[in-house]
Design goal:
This protein is an all-beta fold. Helices cover 2% and strands 39% of the residues. The longest helix is centred in the N-terminal third of the chain and has 5 residues, at 115-119. The radius of gyration is 31 Å and the shape is flat.
Length: 531
């Protein structure tokens, strides 16, 4: 593959662009004709396309002038502008006696996790963000796009999860409830909830209109796995499940030392106590008093009231080693362990606010990592490294993003900055001075984006923005005061230039309509990096 250089010039004056990356793979084509699952969104705004959506091929670039946002949005996006909030809809939910737990997103819940962290995202054929895979919800609280969904308020991003069902696992008896809008203006259909092949709920038939609102709850369901699907996209304001909480008592019986009983929810794992008695070695917890039963490990889940029995053996110093844990200045205290020589011994990782735990080491200089086998009495050292916060801001004080960086590491998650007409981003600054992003970080810092006003009176074209996209790349530049014609070239590795079709250089209006700028596209490029 030939390496190309993309340049833009004012007649015979050339200026090399920044490094651009072209991704040659095509986006996934989702077909709404397949059964689609819940779209986790609640707003009523349609997303805007950027000026870069206008054309990705020479044939698409025939228009002489276009405004930003010309590209068409998908049905799921376009219809959000007419979607009604379901905040006014009411429906009955069944009552569960005793203690309950509720999980999901909506107006009644305050603990959130991002739905997209469960499913991931991809891009559909129209360039819209969609959920990448089926979502399984097992005692998780979540919110699409990291925004709290409160009766239609908050961020209104559309997640068109075509052919991607939502699965809810009930660990005990409970019910599932949801409300929202029918999300299709072209298809009629129903919403379904099934346990395997058994239907537990089937909605009425909705006509093709996003003004159709729905809200319902199932009857009390047994513990199990339930799948929510629909014949077309739907938009949710609330999705949650409520289940009963049943608890059991775990009693610990031991000949030496002592351990208090615990009350835990049935189906939950239990944190087992570790005991110590001078002259003896604690060998763990068992289901019978004579240690012939099953040994309990960290994966043990309580199914009812139970008594667990401690196993002890006499300590023989010839066969056992003492492990001392040194956690430095962390303030964390760990009891010494007596371990059988030659056996594998797992040491749990530690957590310390403001620090990253790097592991256990056999020396105080953290040169030799602990391998997991004890051969003699020793001291294990915990290493922690300070975590610093790097905040990226504009000069008006607004925050772009933040990044957590380990002490003595450099920044890696450098954000893209916004486009400002008439200005060019030139660098990040720290306390007014240009900041080298390869510099190691030793404390919390604030980096500010620096822009400079573009001079259009000279004899060089200055690129405002440039970026790679599907099988192509583009550059944007301001109208030049003395120019009457612009030419763009692709530079081959042999130094020769190939002139691009003039129709790939197009004129646009800024979003406010007060200014114009030019954009040039190089299309049909293979995946790779172009300089």
């Amino acid at each position: 593959m030939k390496k190309k250089k993309f340049l833009i010039g004012l007649t015979t004056a050339f200026l090399s662009l920044a490094v651009l990356t072209s991704c040659g793979s095509s986006s996934k084509n989702n077909d709404e004709s397949t059964q689609s699952s819940v779209v986790a969104t609640s707003g009523a705004t349609s997303a805007e396309a950027t000026s870069g959506d206008a054309a990705t091929s020479a044939d698409a670039a025939t228009s002489a002038e276009a405004t930003s946002g010309d590209a068409a949005t998908s049905e799921a996006e376009a219809s959000t502008s007419t979607a009604e909030s379901t905040s006014a809809i009411s429906y009955d939910v069944p009552e569960i006696e005793g203690e309950t737990s509720t999980y999901g997103f909506g107006a009644s819940y305050t603990s959130w996790q991002e739905l997209v962290t469960l499913a991931g995202t991809t891009t559909d054929k129209n360039g819209n963000t969609v959920l990448a895979k089926a979502v399984t919800i097992d005692q998780f609280n979540f919110a699409s796009n990291g925004k709290n969904r409160v009766d239609g308020e908050g961020d209104a991003s559309v997640y068109n999860t075509q052919a991607t069902n939502i699965t809810i696992t009930l660990k005990s008896r409970g019910f599932i409830a949801l409300d929202g809008n029918w999300g299709s203006t072209t298809k009629t259909g129903k919403i379904y909830i099934k346990n395997g092949s058994t239907s537990v709920y089937e909605s009425e038939t909705f006509t093709a209109s996003t003004s159709n609102i729905f809200g319902f709850a199932t009857e009390i369901l047994d513990a199990g796995t339930y799948v929510i699907s629909s014949d077309a996209s739907i938009r949710l304001n609330n999705l949650y499940y409520t289940r009963e909480v049943t608890k059991a008592t775990v009693t610990f019986q031991t000949e030496y030392s002592s351990a208090e009983s615990k009350t835990v929810e049935i189906g939950e794992a239990i944190e087992l106590p570790t005991l110590y008695q001078e002259g003896y070695v604690f060998k763990g917890w068992y289901t019978t008093n004579d240690s012939t039963g099953t040994k309990i490990d960290d994966n043990y889940k309580v199914t009812g009231n139970v008594t667990l029995y401690a196993k002890w053996i006499e300590y023989d110093p010839a066969n056992y080693a003492t492990v001392i844990f040194n956690t430095g200045d962390s303030g964390i205290e760990i009891q010494n362990a007596v371990v059988e020589i030659g056996t594998e011994y797992t040491v749990d990782p530690l957590t310390l606010d403001g620090y990253q735990f790097m592991g256990w080491f056999t020396d105080s200089n953290y040169q030799y990592a602990y391998t997991g086998t004890i051969s003699e009495s020793c001291t294990l050292y915990a290493q922690f490294i300070k975590i610093h916060t790097v905040t990226y801001k504009y000069d008006d004080g607004s925050t772009i993003s933040t990044e957590k960086v380990l002490d003595q590491d450099a920044v890696v998650e450098i954000p893209n900055v916004k486009k400002i007409y008439g200005k060019q981003f030139v660098s990040w600054t720290l306390n007014g001075e240009t900041y080298n992003t390869d510099t190691v970080v030793t404390g919390d810092i604030v980096l500010v984006a620096k822009y400079e006003t573009i001079d259009t009176t000279g004899d060089q074209v200055v690129v405002m923005n440039s970026e790679g996209y599907q099988e192509g790349l583009y550059a944007e530049f301001m109208q030049f005061d003395t120019a009457t014609e612009y030419n763009a070239y692709v530079k081959e590795t042999d130094g020769t230039y190939t002139k691009l079709d003039s129709q790939l250089i197009r004129k646009y209006k800024t979003e406010d309509g007060n200014n114009t700028y030019y954009r040039v596209d190089a299309v049909g490029l293979a995946a790779g990096t172009y300089t």
